[in-house]
Amino acid sequence: MLKAAGVGLGDEVVVPAYGNADVAEAVVLAGALPVFADIDPTTYCLDAAAVDAAVTSRTAAVIVVHRFGLPADMGALGELGRRHGLLMLEQAEGNEAYDQVARRRAVAAYLDARLTGVRTPDAGRGHTYQQYVVRVPGNGRPDRDAFARAVRAKGVDCRVPVKTPVHRMPQYRRDVMLPETERAADETLALPVRAELTRRELQRMVSACNALGGLLQPAF
Question: Is the pTM of this model over 0.85?
């Protein structure tokens, strides 16, 4: 799509660093330069103000990636694109059947009402909960990782959704300040939200998480 729109050598494309490297890789394959902008801490998608600050005379496009089933603020981002005359591309997660989404929302509502010690995801803007991503408060990665290990030891299958932001990967390393991206990479943890989870499994997950209180000291 970038090549078809004439984006290439000498152009810059604003992309998120919170996520996989495939978007930045696509920009490089088109011959352009990926420029990383910070995310909104609620949606984990590009923040319009951060994108605005990253735009230069060489910016040709912005690639917006919708994360975890909660869409980006396309109203603000679309207005920014029109104001700067930029190509706006969206990478959306796959469409799923309504009943499957409804069941995941029911699971998420159960967890929202019972989890303590972690910050539950925002339920606004039609969240489809392709991933149920919580925040583990504390002093950064040792606390989140220790929390994850302890929860797994209780039989709860959880994972870190983004281990290394793209702007910290050697092939894309940039000297840029992205505080919300860094904080999200250090604090986020995806808990299971499969539609087929049983009430017993949900109770075990809540019990395991709440018993930890949300903060563990690093293990030495």
Answer: yes
